[in-house]
Design a protein that fits this description.
Layout (H helix, E strand, L loop, with lengths): L4 E4 L4 E4 L8 E5 L12 H19 L4 E5 L6 H10 L3 H18 L15 H13 L3 E4 L2 E4 L15 H6 L15 E6 L14 E3 L3 H11 L2 E8 L3 H15 L5 E8 L2 E3 L2 E2 L10 H6 L4 H9 L7 E2 L2 H18 L9 H8 L4 H13 L3 H10 L18 H17 L3 H12 L2 E6 L2 E6 L5 H4 L3
Parallel strand pairs: 3-4, 3-9, 9-10, 11-13
Antiparallel strand pairs: 1-2, 5-6, 6-7, 7-8, 11-12, 14-15
This protein binds one RNA strand through helix 1, helix 5, strand 9, helix 7 and strand 12.
Length: 453
Amino acid sequence: MAEIKLHNTKIRGEQLFTPIDPDNVRIYLCGPTVYDRAHLGNARNVIMFDVLFRLLRHEYGAGHVTYVRNFTDVDDKINARAAESGRSIAEITAETSQWYLDDMAALGTLEPTHMPRATAYIPQMVEMIADLIARGHAYAAEGHVLFSVESYKEYGALSGRSVDDMIAGARVEVAPYKRNPMDFVLWKPSSDDLPGWDSPWGRGRPGWHIECSAMSFALLGASFDIHGGGNDLMFPHHENEIAQSCCAHPEGDFAQVWMHNEMLQVEGKKMSKSLGNFFTVRDLLEQGVPGEVIRFVFLSTHYRKPMDWTEKKAAEAEAVLRKWRGMVAGVEASDVPAAVLASVANDLNTAGAIAELHRLATAGEAPALKAGAALLGLLGEDLGGWDRVAVDLSDYVTRFNETRAKAMENKDFSGVDAMKQALIAAGVEVRMSKAGVELVPGPGFDAAKLEAL
RNA sequence: GGCGAGUUGGCGGAGUGGUGACGCAGCGGAUUGCAAAUCCGUGUACAGGAGUUCGAUUCUCCUACUCGCCUCCA
């Protein structure tokens, strides 16, 4: 059994991971709000959690880990998208959810055990909100229900802020019905043209944070092991989740470990919708960047460090994966090598694990390479195929061999060189040896350019 | 202003209180008709300052810079 160490935002440091129940290790990842394609940054924590999921399954058994990732399918961004496109909300969320699943599958991520949709948990949210009011942690005002941050003395602990400090530098709009400017919405009224559900406070819809509290409680209980997301969710989203969950269920203590990944950057800037400098996972896939390459690039940087997406990294990753795939083809995986496991168990040090894979590759230990890569979700069947171009070059091999044989006799290699140049120009790797010629379609293979031969 | 993360060689990127990974690129060699691929070998780094220590890139403090959060955002 490997010793798993994880960085816990709650204590600002690493700690040994000890599950509440080794027979049922429970983890929760904040999933997407489904109104558009997932951008590349969205993939980072999904891949991070996928590695975590694989590690925990390896250690505790595949049947002993429960992974929940929600779909937030009620949100004002979705409403806005529906209004501007004239399409129905249901249509948008269904389509976007499927896109998300397709894109994440293309990156080799395993599906979570549960993928609850917020709209299927409205009664649980209403119940939790009513409970919070009953316990004096929330109040109804003008059709809204607000969480009273003053009622929870730990508010701000995760992100290291105090309510007073936040008010001092506040940029939040202060609604007149708020008792404290930092109070946040649990429930808000819906006009007739907006989605809404009946509730004790009138027809309305949930605020942003309550869905995660309600769904994690329903599926994982009042206490569970690990909760995660991007570090931009630390405040306010996770802070508010903690407040809601801990106040509604004081018998539990919500997530034991909080894991937050750093942001992905593009040209030194965070990729974000408001900056408009984002591109989607699908964009890259359509440009021909294999999902496995995207995954490899992500895993090359530790999750708690900023990572820049660059084409150069993608090209390097592709070259490495081609080489490794060539090595492990037809090879039976061994047990996961201890050094790889130790790296991954060390706060998901995937970059360190990849370094170990390089060592194994150099040493020619293909079975271990395959097993270690599998722990990272690499070199598997699911992500394969992209490195092999389905093209029959045997005619060219024959012609090349004939031309070369003549050249060997008369010492005039001009014909061979011309042919070689043409093949290289078409993206074919030409390997000549005494035994003969091998032609391998490479990254830039272009069948059209072969026509000229 | 408050809170947090980062700063390692040409590039990417781990790790460690004491002989400075690894990958890519570069250079030299083997191989080749020439190449490619492969193999062997090889150079350069720990933002700055102070402190703790026999010794710090690694621990502590300060400074600088970069990035993020504090508003929808992973």
